Amino acid sequence: MRTILNPYFAIDPVKHKTGVTQQERLNHSKKCSKLLQTIFGKTQQEIFEASKSYINRHKDLLSFFFALSFWQGVTQNELSEKARTIPLLASIITSEAISPRSAGKFSPGKIKGQSIKRYRNSKPARFTRFMIECLSETDKRLLLKGYQFAKPGIFPLERRTTRHLVYNSLIRKNRHYAEKYCFSNINGTGASCCCINYIDSINIASLNKFLIKLSKNFYQMRCSIVHDAYPVGFCHLDTRPQDVASWGMTLVDTYQITGQGGSSLLVQYESEFHRDQLQKMFIDAYWNAFKKGWPI
């Protein structure tokens, strides 16, 4: 029987299946390729070249398809344009699914007293590794500029001053930079606080240290939704009017964490991101994960 070459992937995603004709295998590959082309905005050939990282690991490639199918189904098919909590939750869960099943030698962000082995196999570690290894340097800096957090407090929570995650480090080095408020205006042309120049100036190693903190906060937001049914906003949905040259929009919101003794605490945060901006960052990171051959 003549073998039909697969022009979609370097390896058959359903190689393990029996009783399947070559044409059926080809049709399945075509469908999966179309999915990735739609999500990533890549050509069939680009998808094929990137899939070479999965050679001899067809089940991992299939796992990647399942994760991205879930993401597309939730973010593009099942929710309205005004939805923002579930789409970003879906992005974080998808990130967990396509990250390496063990964080390997990766240990940044380990909780004090937690064993290295247990941490490396945990979902928070996998998500943190995804953020560090798959986000572009540009997106890492932008994320650190666009999110600010306050110290946890008990309910009812009064309005608190939120800070960029780099603020305390900056003030320890340059106390004369202390400012009453943090702001960055990443979507407009207004003024920004001292943290913004600092984020632009630090090297990649320092950048990743702060990203570990942001990943922890993102994961706490995820757990607040999944375990406490607490509606976390993540980002705003407002768009710039056509007749406005400079535009800045900030979401002020809270999420729930567990404090000492099992008490519930609220963390106030501010986000300057529109949902589409965050979605685009995750999509770019998924593409980088695909080129790495994740999950492994």
How does this structure look, described?
- The chain has 296 residues and is mainly alpha-helical.
- It is elongated.
- The two termini are 34 Å apart.
- The chain contains 11 helices and 3 strands; from the N terminus they run H-H-H-H-H-H-H-E-H-H-H-E-E-H.
- The protein has helices spanning 22-40, 44-50, 58-77, 85-98, 116-120, 123-134, 137-146, 167-173, 194-201, 204-228, 275-292; strands at residues 147-149, 251-258, 264-271.
- It has a 3-stranded antiparallel beta sheet.
Number of helices: 11
Q: Reading side by side through the largest sheet, how are the strands ordered?
A: 1-3-2
- The whole-angstrom Rg is 21 Å
Instruction: Indicate the overall shape.
Output: elongated
The count of DSSP E runs of length 2 or more, i.e. the number of strands, is 3
- Percentage of residues in strands: 5-15%
Residue stretches low in confidence (pLDDT < 50, at least 5 long) are: none
What does the average pLDDT come to? 86
- Roughly how many Å apart are the termini? 34 Å
Q: Brief description of this entry?
A:
This protein is mostly helical and 296 residues long. The chain contains 11 helices and 3 strands.
SSE map:
Elements: H1 22-40, H2 44-50, H3 58-77, H4 85-98, H5 116-120, H6 123-134, H7 137-146, E1 147-149, H8 167-173, H9 194-201, H10 204-228, E2 251-258, E3 264-271, H11 275-292
Helix pairs in contact: 1-3, 3-4, 4-6, 4-10, 4-11, 6-10, 6-11, 7-10
Note the main attributes of this structure:
296 residues, mainly alpha, 3-stranded antiparallel beta sheet, 11 helices, 3 strands, 49% helix
